[in-house]
Design the sequence.
């Protein structure tokens, strides 16, 4: 489709009827949709924003996910309950995640502004969505709140498969908490760190619904990522050809990443066997 | 020695409290705003324990009282029903088709087995958003645009591969001596599957089913794009639409958001153990 000229607003045009189903015939335009996409400066600026968004999101989600996993891996009363609470942000629809954070970050009625004022830290209110860079960082943080629990789940699964004897041996050798973390826990969950990085990168590239609910790509184009640009081109302006072209450049990247991941994983497993 | 243990325990409890606050406080605040009046949310200094508690927001979105934006709110209940129908149908189809396919992949050798398995994995890696233009055109050609059936078809196409993989992984943990003894006892393959293997596969079915239901109940973009006609869409697009309206109080939107969140949250909390097992088994194995 990214190679075709698709105009959705015209119902006429060449078509083929098969068993009562009208199949539209598209005009093949070669690589024109791609060439047009690459000639658009907005494409390249969106790519740069996407790169920032993905890098910040991957970093935050991995670190917060790992941090929460390290806390939840310890023994404390109510640990089972906490593992249920862990899944709450992840189980919400992104539409709900978005409007829930509106209630916290809003300029007029936001709870965070209310809290900061009560603590005497600010006088007025902070407009989190007014400045483009701030809005982009809010998107990163909100998406991280939603996604980090999944990283925590994967980390916890990895930590639980570490044999207890390893910790006991380390403790007998006089290793403290940080040494056990550095020499036992982290090496053992290294493959999972890799998995989390890949999953977070792909998810970061594809994030769309939060932009829809929170910023609509604005102010200006300041939160327009490649996914949002493709979505808008295809479904707000109904240019399916160019929209699909933009989205396919994204797909190519995600597939490449997953392919690399599998290659590295299989080589590692092959080396161990 | 004793003091140090107490010290590190205090640090741990502090960290647990921080994590719990970070995870739960935003969701709790959503509930608090949904039972508050907007004027109390706007009041400064802000009261974190609501001075007045009201069910007015819920009454508004459920159509029990008249208010200025009741046209918007009147869409909530029908779209909730649509969400329930679509998510329920997709879950049932996934459990019927996905588990059977998963069983076949776990037990049989057949031509193109690994190729088709990787094809399924490939569709899982393909971003949904890239498929939407294609769905749009195909469903329109089939006359399924703006129907719940169209949505069910679209959702199945990206939930089924996942269910097949989860169920395949689950069936592989069940020893196939069980099937063989059923076959010796005179069952045919299908009877061995649904009389002997399925009844002991409860956790796997729960994991696959609950995950599918959650995914469909929460899905936004596909429903937003495919079903635009009034009365054909699901809950998330309706709430997203209300979110953009200036004339609707945030407290009313919060009430609808909380109602939308509740089923998925309850599902996840109840089936937490099985879902975590299913999800991590699928992904950690790679």
Sequence:
């Amino acid at each position: 489709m990214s190679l075709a000229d698709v105009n959705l607003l015209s119902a006429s045009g060449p078509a083929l009827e098969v068993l009562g189903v009208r199949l539209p015939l598209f005009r093949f335009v070669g690589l024109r949709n791609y060439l047009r996409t690459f000639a658009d400066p907005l494409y390249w600026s969106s790519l740069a924003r996407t790169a920032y968004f993905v890098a910040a999101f991957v970093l935050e989600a991995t670190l917060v996910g790992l941090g929460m996993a390290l806390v939840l891996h310890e023994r404390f009363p109510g640990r089972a309950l906490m593992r249920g609470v862990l899944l709450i942000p992840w189980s919400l629809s992104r539409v709900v995640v978005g409007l829930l954070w509106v209630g916290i970050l809003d300029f007029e009625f936001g709870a965070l502004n209310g809290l900061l004022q009560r603590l005497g830290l600010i006088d007025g209110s902070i407009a989190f969505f007014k400045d483009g860079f701030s809005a982009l960082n809010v998107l990163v943080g909100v998406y991280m709140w939603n996604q980090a629990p999944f990283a925590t789940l994967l980390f916890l699964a990895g930590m639980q498969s570490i044999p207890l004897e390893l910790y006991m041996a380390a403790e007998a050798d006089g290793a403290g908490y940080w040494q056990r973390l550095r020499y036992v826990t982290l090496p053992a969950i290294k493959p999972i760190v890799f998995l989390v990085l890949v999953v977070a990168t792909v998810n970061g590239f594809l994030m769309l619904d939060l932009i829809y609910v929170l910023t609509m790509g604005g102010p200006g184009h300041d939160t327009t990522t490649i996914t949002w640009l493709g979505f808008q081109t295809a479904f707000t302006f109904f240019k399916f050809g160019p929209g699909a072209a933009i989205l396919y450049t994204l797909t190519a990247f995600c597939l490449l990443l997953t392919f690399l991941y599998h290659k590295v994983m299989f080589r590692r497993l092959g080396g161990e066997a | 020695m004793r003091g140090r243990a107490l010290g590190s325990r205090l640090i741990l409890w502090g960290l647990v409290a921080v994590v719990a606050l970070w995870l739960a406080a935003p969701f709790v605040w959503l509930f608090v705003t949904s039972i508050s009046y907007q004027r109390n949310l706007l009041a400064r200094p802000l009261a974190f324990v609501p001075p007045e508690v009201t069910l007015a927001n819920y009454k508004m979105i459920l159509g029990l009282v008249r208010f200025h934006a009741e046209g918007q709110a009147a869409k909530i209940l029908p779209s909730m029903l649509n969400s329930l129908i679509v998510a329920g149908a997709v879950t049932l189809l996934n459990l019927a088709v996905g588990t059977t396919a998963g069983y076949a992949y776990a037990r049989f050798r057949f031509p193109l087995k690994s190729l088709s398995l990787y094809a399924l994995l490939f569709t899982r890696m393909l971003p949904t958003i890239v498929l939407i233009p294609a769905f749009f055109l195909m469903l329109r050609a089939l006359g399924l645009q703006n129907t719940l059936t169209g949505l069910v078809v679209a959702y199945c196409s990206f939930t089924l591969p996942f269910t097949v993989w989860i169920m395949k992984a689950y069936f592989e943990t069940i020893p196939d001596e069980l099937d063989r003894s059923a076959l010796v006892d005179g069952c045919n393959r299908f009877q061995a599957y649904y009389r002997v293997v399925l009844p002991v596969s409860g956790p796997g079915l729960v994991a696959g089913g609950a995950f599918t239901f959650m995914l469909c109940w929460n899905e936004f973009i596909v429903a937003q794009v495919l079903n635009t006609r009034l009365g054909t869409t699901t809950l998330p697009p309706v709430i997203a639409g209300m979110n953009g309206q200036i004339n609707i109080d945030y407290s009313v939107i919060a009430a609808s958001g909380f109602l939308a969140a509740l089923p998925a949250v309850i599902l996840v909390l109840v089936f937490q153990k099985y879902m975590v097992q299913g999800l991590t088994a699928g992904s950690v194995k790679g």
Residues 8-17, 269-273 of chain A have pLDDT under 50 and may be disordered. Chain A has one domain: 4-272. DSSP finds 13 helices and four strands in chain A. Strands of chain A lie at 4-5, 15-18, 21-24, 27-28.
